[in-house]
Amino acid sequence: YSRAMKEADIDMICLDNSDWERKLSYYYENHEDRRLSALKGLNYVNKNYSDKTKLEKWDKLFHTLGLNIS
Questions:
Q1: ∠ at Cα 45 (31, 25), nearest 5°?
Q2: Cα 9 to Cα 70: distance, rounded to the nearest angstrom
């Protein structure tokens, strides 16, 4: 979770209950930051876990094995 948050450039890492309360309150009150964080998360997921990205990773794996399946 913390790795994904860092890679997506989203400031939502919480280490304890106090962090959770502070972050939830902040994002509840700050619509624009909440929206921007959601967009960053969506971009991260689309970049790293889309069907196209997964297929490209499989193609690379097969290529390293000497198989050309494209």
A1: 25
A2: 33
Residue 28's nearest CA partner among 45, 7, 12 is 12
Q: How many CB atoms lie within 10 A of CB 12?
A: 19
Report pTM: 0.72
Which residues does 10 contact at the CB level (< 8 Å), separation at least 6? 37, 40, 41, 44
Contact between residue 33 and residue 26 where contact means Cβ atoms under 8 Å apart: yes
Query: What are the pLDDT digits (tens) for 7-58?
Result: 999 999 999 999 999 999 999 999 999 999 999 999 999 999 899 988 988 9
Cβ neighbors of 6 (< 8 A, separation 6 or more) are 13
- The two tokens of residue 15 are 């280490």
Neighbours of 57 (CB within 10 A): 11
